[in-house]
UniProtKB/TrEMBL annotation:
Source organism phylogeny: Bacteria, Bacillati, Actinomycetota, Actinomycetes, Mycobacteriales
Residue ranges occupied by any Response regulatory domain in the UniProt entry: 1-114
Keyword annotations from UniProtKB, A to Z: DNA-binding, Phosphoprotein
CDD domains membership: LuxR_C_like, REC_NarL-like
Protein name (database record): Response regulator transcription factor
Keyword set includes Transcription regulation: no
Signal peptide: none
Length: 209
C-alpha cells in the first residue's frame, strides 16, 4: 500500500512497484484513509509519507499497525530530519528512505522490508542506533527481564545483528517457519509490537555484541 497525499507522486510510485512485480493492493492520502484501507487489505508492506494532511507519517504508521499488525512500514519522505526519523521508528516503522533515493534503491528496500529486515538511507541507520544506545544507557530499575529459552535468545541475537528470518534459519539450520515462531513467541513474552522494537530491546540488553 502506498500512502502519500500527492497524487502524481503516489501514482508514480505505485506504477514503479507494479512494473517490478509487486501487487499494489491500495493507496491512501492521509492517516484516516490509510487506517481504513490497511484494515481492509492487510498489506505486507506500506510505503508511508511523513507529511499528510490529517497528521504525520508517524501517526499513520501507528494507526496502520493497530489495525494490521503484520504489516511492515517503510517511510519514504522528503525529510531526513532527526525528529522525523525517530518518531517514525518509535511509531513502528521498519525503515526510512528519503525521496531522493533511486528507483532501484526503493525496490531493493521494499524487498528487504518484506523479508523482515530494517532499511535506512545511509546515515540514518547510525542515527537510529545511536538513539537506541542512548536510551539503553538510561537507568530502568523497575524493568524485569522475561525468561527466554536458549533458542529464543539465540534467535534474538541474530535479529539484533539485522539478519532476516531466512538468514537466521540458514545460520541455525532451522526452517523459516520455526524462526518466525521463535520471533513471535519472543514478541509475546517481551510484550513488544514488532521486530523494530525487538531489535531495540536486543541492543539495550547487549545482544548485538
Amino acid at each position: 500500500m502506498v500512502v502519500d497525499d500527492h497524487p502524481i507522486w503516489r501514482d508514480g510510485v505505485a506504477r514503479d512497484l507494479d512494473d517490478e512485480g509487486f501487487e499494489v493492493v491500495a493507496t491512501a492520502d492521509g492517516v484516516g484513509s490509510a487506517r481504513r484501507r490497511a484494515a481492509a487489505v492487510t498489506p505486507d508492506v506500506v510505503l508511508m509519507d511523513m507529511q499528510l494532511p490529517d497528521g504525520t507519517g508517524a501517526d499513520a504508521t501507528a494507526a496502520v499497525l493497530e489495525v494490521s499488525p503484520s504489516s511492515r512500514v517503510l517511510v519514504l519522505s522528503a525529510s531526513d530530519e532527526r525528529d522525523d526519523v525517530l518518531e517514525a521508528v518509535k511509531a513502528g516503522a521498519s525503515g526510512y528512505l528519503v525521496k531522493s533515493s533511486s528507483k532501484a534503491e526503493l525496490v531493493a528496500a521494499v524487498r528487504a522490508i518484506a523479508d523482515g529486515q530494517a532499511v535506512f538511507t545511509p546515515g540514518l541507520a547510525g542515527l537510529v542506533l545511536g538513539e537506541y544506545r542512548r536510551m539503553s544507557a538510561e537507568p530502568d530499575p523497575g524493568h524485569l527481564r522475561p525468561s527466554l529459552t536458549d533458542r529464543e535468545t539465540e534467535v534474538l541475537r541474530h535479529v539484533a545483528k539485522g539478519l532476516s528470518a531466512k538468514q537466521i534459519a540458514t545460520r541455525l539450520s532451522l526452517s523459516h517457519r520455526t524462526v518466525e515462531n521463535h520471533v513471535q513467541a519472543t514478541l509475546r513474552k517481551l510484550q513488544l509490537g514488532n521486530r523494530v522494537e525487538l531489535t531495540r530491546y536486543a541492543i539495550e540488553h547487549g545482544l548485538d555484541e
